[in-house]
């Protein structure tokens, strides 16, 4: 029972991640609470063991990133050692008069065994250790850390571009590219952290010198003035304890500084240090034989220690002999016959239909600076908005928008994006991924500082601002959107404009499947009455004129009824528009009670009707492409944008009413000259509509 409760308690502690809080509390306890000599022995021993373990891990690791926690560990160990110095200083100053064992066995051992009980020797040894640690190891490691951090950060863009290049070339997939980017970022963070961690080691060395001086002066004063010891006795007693304390702390510090230097100086191929020394230092027997010869010459020089030099001569000869017996891999011979065979025409891979790349209906390519917009670690804001665009367009238009493929493209500028329709680049834009777009509203209460630019989707004047300026921009009357929303808005516009091209033959099958689920017999009769090719022209024409296909039952009923009279796709489209006239008016006018519109001037209308009659007498002609006087076209090109802007300025949707015979032609010119101008025929206005004619197009 007790064991189970203990196990439950330990499990709760493990889940609570209490290790770090306990460590911090222990550090505070060493500063604030007096420690017994036994506890000091345990802590000094733990400090030495930890330093040895860290050094061994640094020596045996294969890559610096394998020990990425080292900077944090270095900070923790340095802090623990400094607090231990504080605790040991308290014990030395309080109980140093009692004898050499007053501060524990570890300090006594370093004071007696290591330095032989001579405070002068101890002081010299301590100073030498400090010089080695501070001047040699720490200073060199600090410089290497600074250079490594700077070079790593400078190489970061090149590494990112290399990853993007491999990804676009198909050498790696998205997951591998994401893993490589994470590793590159982790490497930059590691060397930056090592640059800062080297300052800990340097500060630790300086602190060790200062603690030594303070302890010596303080101990002598306490021994003489408080405990009445003579000067020589007090000096020897406290100096021995202080130096033993300093050595017990500085040896782990030297080990950790050495571990830090080993980590930052590694240029590894994936092996540990021992293997690299064996393969690189002892690789060539000729070098070892030469070294043995030099040692032998020195050994026979009169006055030299012959035995020592001869021993190392023999050792080098033995190492060279063993290395010469190692079987070296034979040099690879080039098999030219195999190369020629591989390059022969018979060995070339066969070209098939599967080797031809497929054309994506709609795609979005991003420069490498915009890749963060689809990073799952940051929430993939662009992917979420593109998914929303696809859903909204599909719901409003009644057809399923194809999946939008998002890819990286290193050929683009870093902040550019490109939209492709059926493999053809249709639109190009450039945004600032780290900024927000401020769009001026109808009423502004001031101007905001930023980068002046043009909206890539609609060509409006906008301002790119920093994220912290968002609240100010909103207060001044600007509309603020993020970079992902800007790109998604542009994709939405291009997708709607090119929806007729994206609607293909197979989409009719899916559309009629929806019809069959609502009216099975109607779907069957429509399929028998009209061919898919004719239906494709009708559906595309409706989408071109921004008529939704959601009400497929009404559309199918109208087409089936009208197909008995005509097979002309323009006339069939006109019949469908008449059947959907209320939905079309609602899409244009919204919830407004009154409908305002322009009409054609009588003279202009008669000229166009005369041109239509003349073309029909000459032969069968399409209603949207009969010959028109070029002067009339110029007139329409000049006046259509004018009435569009006039109605928009008055807060009314731009609308032009014409006769049914002229509507296909005028609608075609409207899409060319004024894309936002809606062109309706008179019979497409419901009888109960509150219509107001506000002007004429002359």
Automatic annotation (TrEMBL):
Protein name: Flagellar biosynthesis protein FlhA
Membrane topology of this protein: Multi-pass membrane protein
Gene3D superfamilies for this protein: FHIPEP family, domain 1, FHIPEP family, domain 3, FHIPEP family, domain 4
Any single GO CC term annotated in Swiss-Prot or TrEMBL for this entry: plasma membrane
Residue intervals passing through the bilayer: 12-32, 38-58, 65-84, 119-137, 205-227, 247-267, 288-321
Record's keyword annotation contains Transmembrane: yes
Keyword tags: Cell membrane, Cell projection, Cilium, Flagellum, Membrane, Transmembrane, Transmembrane helix
Places the protein is found: Cell membrane
Taxonomic superkingdom: Bacteria
UniProt record, GO biological process: bacterial-type flagellum assembly; protein secretion
InterPro entries attached to this UniProt entry: FHIPEP_1, FHIPEP_3, FHIPEP_4, FHIPEP_CS, T3SS_FHIPEP
Family statement drawn from the similarity comment of this UniProt entry: Belongs to the FHIPEP (flagella/HR/invasion proteins export pore) family.
Record carries keyword Glycoprotein: no
């Amino acid at each position: 029972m007790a064991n189970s409760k203990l196990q439950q308690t330990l499990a709760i502690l493990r889940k609570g991640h209490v290790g770090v809080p306990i460590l911090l509390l222990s550090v505070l306890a060493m500063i604030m609470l007096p420690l017994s000599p036994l506890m000091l022995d345990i802590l000094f021993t733990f400090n030495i063991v930890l330093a040895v373990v860290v050094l061994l891990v640094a020596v045996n690791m294969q890559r610096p990133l394998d020990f990425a926690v080292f900077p944090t560990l270095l900070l923790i160990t340095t802090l623990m050692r400094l607090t231990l110095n504080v605790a040991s200083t308290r014990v030395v100053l309080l109980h140093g008069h009692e004898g050499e064992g007053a501060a524990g066995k570890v300090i006594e051992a370093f004071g007696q065994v290591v330095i032989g009980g001579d405070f002068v020797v101890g002081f010299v040894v301590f100073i030498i250790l400090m010089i080695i640690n501070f001047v040699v190891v720490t200073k060199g490691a600090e410089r290497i850390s600074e250079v490594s951090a700077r070079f790593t950060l400078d190489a970061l863009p090149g590494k990112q571009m290399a990853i993007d290049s491999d990804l676009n070339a198909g050498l790696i997939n998205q997951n591998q590219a994401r893993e490589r980017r994470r590793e590159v970022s982790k490497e930059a963070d590691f060397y930056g952290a090592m640059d800062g961690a080297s300052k800990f080691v340097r500060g630790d060395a300086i602190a060790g010198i200062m603690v030594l001086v303070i302890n010596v002066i303080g101990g002598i004063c306490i021994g003489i003035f408080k405990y009445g010891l003579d000067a020589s006795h007090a000096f020897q007693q406290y100096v021995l304890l202080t130096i033993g304390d300093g050595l017990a702390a500085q040896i782990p510090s030297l080990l950790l500084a050495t571990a830090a230097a080993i980590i930052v100086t590694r240029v590894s191929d994936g092996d540990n240090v021992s293997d690299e020394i064996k393969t690189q230092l002892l690789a060539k027997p000729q070098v070892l034989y030469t070294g043995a010869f030099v040692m032998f010459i020195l050994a026979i020089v009169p006055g030299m220690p012959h035995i020592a030099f001869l021993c190392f001569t023999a050792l080098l000869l033995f190492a060279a002999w063993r290395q010469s017996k190692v079987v070296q891999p034979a040099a690879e011979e080039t098999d030219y016959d195999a190369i020629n065979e591989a390059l022969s025409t018979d060995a070339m891979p066969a070209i098939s239909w599967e080797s031809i790349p497929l054309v994506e209906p709609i795609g979005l390519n991003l420069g490498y600076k915009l890749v963060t917009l689809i990073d799952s670690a940051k929430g993939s804001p662009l992917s979420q908005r593109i998914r929303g665009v696809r859903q909204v367009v599909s719901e409003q238009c009644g057809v399923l928008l194809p999946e939008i493929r998002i890819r990286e493209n290193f050929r683009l500028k870093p902040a550019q994006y490109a939209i492709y329709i059926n493999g053809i680049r249709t639109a190009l834009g450039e945004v600032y991924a780290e900024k927000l777009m401020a769009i001026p509203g109808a009423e502004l209460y001031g101007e905001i500082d930023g980068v002046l630019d043009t909206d890539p989707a609609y060509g409006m004047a906008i301002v790119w601002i920093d994220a912290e300026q968002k609240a100010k921009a909103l207060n001044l009357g600007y509309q603020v959107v993020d970079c992902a929303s800007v790109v998604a808005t542009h994709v939405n516009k291009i997708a709607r404009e090119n929806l007729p091209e994206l609607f293909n033959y197979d989409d009719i099958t899916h559309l009629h499947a929806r019809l069959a689920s609502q009216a099975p017999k109607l779907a069957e009769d429509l399929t028998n009455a009209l061919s898919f090719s004719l239906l494709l022209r009708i559906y595309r024409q409706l989408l071109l004129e921004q008529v939704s296909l959601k009400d497929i039952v009404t559309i199918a009923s109208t087409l089936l009824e009208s197909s008995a009279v005509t097979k002309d796709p323009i006339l069939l489209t006109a019949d469908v528009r008449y059947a959907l006239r209320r939905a079309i008016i609602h899409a244009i006018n919204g919830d407004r009670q009154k409908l305002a519109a322009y009409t054609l001037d009588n003279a202009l209308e008669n000229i166009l009707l005369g041109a239509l009659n003349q073309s029909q007498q000459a032969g069968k002609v399409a209603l949207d492409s009969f010959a028109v006087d070029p002067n009339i076209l110029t007139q329409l090109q000049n006046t259509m944008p004018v009435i569009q802007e006039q109605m928009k300025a008055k807060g009314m949707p731009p609308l032009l009413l014409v006769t049914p015979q002229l509507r296909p032609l005028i609608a075609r010119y409207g899409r060319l000259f004024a894309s936002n101008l809606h062109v309706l025929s008179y019979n497409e206005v419901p009888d109960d509509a509150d219509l107001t004619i506000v002007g004429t197009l002359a």
